[in-house]
Automatic annotation (TrEMBL):
CDD domains: DUF820-like. PANTHER family: SLL0995 PROTEIN, SLR1095 PROTEIN. Gene3D superfamilies: tt1808, chain A (3.90.1570.10). Residues 203-242 are annotated as: Disordered. It comes from Gloeobacter violaceus (strain ATCC 29082 / PCC 7421). Residues 226-236 have a biased composition (Basic and acidic residues). Residues 203-225 have a biased composition (Low complexity). This is Glr1007 protein. Pfam families: Uma2.
Length: 242
């Protein structure tokens, strides 16, 4: 008796969430936002660079178990836009070229080793890790089929991003754009925006005051001219020449 082979026609589901939190604490979250928003700012005018934070990346079609969600990733050659996940086969088979991870106390050595092997296996060109608790910065760059460690990260410039890496004296991560502008925290951007708003408001008020003073001066001149004309008329009525 020949048994018929049953083939499932149900489509493979690729969840948009792995059930894990974006961050374990406020410090880790702050640095993830610092990196991701800085990358967004860096490539804001380039429509062919996709930047994402904590987005699930599925590199293999039909396999929803092989996946990672980098804290931040940059994909050159892919358009901007919203995505529930990054399914590589739907993105021209372009793998993220640069990924970032911000460590938390809950991260283990085996876990981070598995991530390194994942990124190495699936084509990541640059992989950077920052530990805000231990003030440690590490980087890996692809050479042939391996992600080799960067010998010295202080002053290192990313080949893909053009961003310079450094640690400040207090251990904070410092990222500097190719145009020498540093990445900024949301608070710093908000403070500068508020200062610019107040400066613009003051300039507008000064312009308005100057306009009002000019209008008042013009009105005074018109009144003076009318008085002079009235005085001339009265003198002429009296038979006098002004």
């Amino acid at each position: 008796m020949v048994q018929a082979m049953v083939i499932s026609t149900q489509a493979v589901q690729y969840p948009d969430s792995d059930g894990q939190p974006m961050s374990d604490n406020t410090r880790q979250f702050r640095w993830i936002v610092y990196i991701k928003e800085g990358l967004d700012w860096l490539f804001a005018d380039n429509p062919s660079v996709f930047v994402a934070g904590d987005l699930l990346w599925y590199p293999v079609e039909g396999d929803n178990k092989t996946r990672q969600a980098p804290d931040a990733m940059v994909v050159f050659g892919r358009p901007k836009g919203d995505r529930g996940s990054y399914r590589q086969w739907e993105e021209g088979d372009v793998a993220p070229q640069v990924v970032f991870e911000v460590l938390s106390p809950g991260n283990t050595v085996p876990e981070m080793s598995r991530k390194l092997l994942f990124y190495e296996r699936f084509g990541v060109e640059e992989y950077y890790l920052y530990d805000p608790d231990r003030f440690d910065l590490a980087g890996f760059v692809r050479r042939d089929d391996r992600l080799d460690p960067v010998d010295a990260m202080q002053g290192w410039v990313s080949p893909r991003l053009g961003v310079r890496f450094a640690l400040a004296d207090n251990g904070d991560l410092v990222l500097v754009r190719p145009d020498s502008l540093p990445f900024e925290s949301y608070q710093a951007v908000a403070r500068r925006a508020e200062a610019e708003r107040l400066q613009t408001q003051m300039a507008q008020q000064e312009t308005q005051m100057a306009r009002q003073e000019a209008e008042q001066a013009q009105q005074r001149a018109q009144v003076a001219e009318q008085r002079a004309e009235e005085l001339t008329r009265r003198l002429q009525e009296m038979g006098l020449e002004p």
